[in-house]
Structures are given as C-alpha cells and as structure tokens.
C-alpha cells in the first residue's frame, strides 16, 4: 500500500487488536487523525508490536505518531520483554532517604522507558504524572511522585531528561492537578473545591518549575467550582488564561480521553470534541469508542494553523534510535537497567519482609 501524503490532524484514536483491520486503516488515513494510542490489548510480544507500529507508520507521510500510557508502576502497558519501571511513588519515597540516588534512578527510568518504546517504533508516552499525592485520589495513588511539589518538580525533571536522552518528548498531566479530588474521572466527574490560590501554590508549582521542559500537557477531567463550572479540559479559564497566560506554556495541549465519564456532562462525543478544541486543546483523545470516532470524523470541522503544526512537531522523536537488539550494545542503557532492576529487587524484598 502506498503512503498517503497528508499532514497530521488533531484526533488521537485507538485500535481494537494486535493488527490493523481494513476499517481501522481507513480511519487512520483520515485527515483529522494525527496519533494512535496503544493499550495492553494491542500487545502480544515485541515482534508483534514492532510489526504493528511499522504498519501504522507506513500508512501516511508524515507518519502518524504512535503514543501509549506507559508511566511505570501499575500504568505500564507493555511488560513481557520490557524492563519493569517502578512506581513514581516508590521513587519519591526513596528521595526522602537518599535524594541523589532517587534522582539518578528516576533519570534511568526515563531513559529506559523511552528507549525501549522507541526501539519498538513507539514515538511517545503520556508521562510524567505531575499530580501531588494527597493520599486520597483513587485514580492517581502511587502514580504520583510525592506530596511536596518541589520533590515532584525535581524528580519529574530527571524523568523528562532521561526521556529526552532517548529522543522522546513528554506530557505533564493532569493540569492543574488531579491528586486532591477523590473520585475517578474514568467513571464519574470529580470535584476539587479548593480556592485558586491553594491550587496555584501547590498543584501548579511543578508546571511552573518545569517551564519549557514540558513539550505537552494534559488537563484533568475535574471541576474546580471556585474557578470555573466546567472541567479543566473544557475550560478557557484553565487552559487559555491560567496555563497559556499566567504560566506561559506554549506546547501542545491534549484533552484527556473524551469517552471517560468525567467528560460526559458536556454532551455527545462531537460536542465534547468541539468544546475541548474551543477551550484550547490542540489534540483530543477518543478511546474505546469506534462509533464515536466515526461520528466525529463525519461531523467535526477543524482549521489547521501553523502554530498547531509547530506544537505537534515538537512531539516527534528526535534522532534515529537503535533496535531492541542494538540496545544490548549500549553500556549506558545497560547500566540504567541494572539500577532499576536492583531497586526493584529491594522493593520486592521489602514487600516480602512486610508480608511475613
């Protein structure tokens, strides 16, 4: 099949299995689509993943971006043949006792995570999680580095720099912060009733600290009623006034998954896309809803801008990268894997002793 010459669009969509169907090929060739997000269901083994990503990249020129939620801890979509990345909370706990080791280890996690994905032609992962650990969010939990925004800033910087060393961009999430709200936005709409001053001095601090290191940001499906009645991902106050205006962020803004229950109050899937784009999102995610994707492709109107292309261009992986076999020859990669495996062994031993 010849590649279709077509610039990338604002939709991030998923696929159903480990190979592409004919209907999915047609969807991925649509001008509104710009990225494919993969899940665990799309992975059997490394060879299958490499074939799948090659087939996706072969559909268009420039090639579609391929992303994944692959943060470490419990959010690691690919496991067999991949290094087990520890939870970000475990790295934050290490920071409390050995800050230098935690910093080096977090950088190693960023490099290994990105290197192993890129060696399978996965371009991008939605990381790091910048939410603070208030000990009450059912969906964030150990995905958070720490309660202290300074520690979150320090360790997320290390992770981002490790990812950048492997040529991968990043995505800070979930702006302005999902850690305080208890509910899971996958199944209901959470609320965070704190005043803006509290959110600015705590949850927004990592975004301000990271500055231009952030190449993209994903807002939360959370309502902050003292600021706006709309969830952050549909709010011009949060995206244009606060993120773009006060914080000066000029990278790409993704919506969170618009098929989540936290987005349902905005309307049907077409209304959600329109609301997110109007509020300031550059790209919108529609996952686990092929009928919704079809509806949006048939109804959504969107005008390309030079600024969109510039922001999307920053997400492109940088430089050629070795194959999985080539990573074996990298002494830096191997040293980073050893740091991670040694730490994982310590965590396993600690858990075993506690259970006894």
TrEMBL record:
It holds the Pfam family Glyco_hydro_3. It is an enzyme of class 3 (hydrolase). GO terms for cellular component: cytoplasm. It is found in: Cytoplasm. The keyword Hydrolase applies. Substrate binds at residues 69, 77, 143, 173-174. InterPro entries: Beta_hexosaminidase_bac, GH, Glyco_hydro_3_N, Glyco_hydro_3_N_sf, NagZ_Beta-hexosaminidase. Its main location: cytoplasm. It comes from the Bacteria. One of its GO terms (biological process) is peptidoglycan biosynthetic process. It catalyses: Hydrolysis of terminal non-reducing N-acetyl-D-hexosamine residues in N-acetyl-beta-D-hexosaminides. Its EC number is 3.2.1.52. The active site is at residues 186, 256. Belongs to the glycosyl hydrolase 3 family. NagZ subfamily. Plays a role in peptidoglycan recycling by cleaving the terminal beta-1,4-linked N-acetylglucosamine (GlcNAc) from peptide-linked peptidoglycan fragments, giving rise to free GlcNAc, anhydro-N-acetylmuramic acid and anhydro-N-acetylmuramic acid-linked peptides. This is Beta-hexosaminidase. It comes from Turicimonas muris.
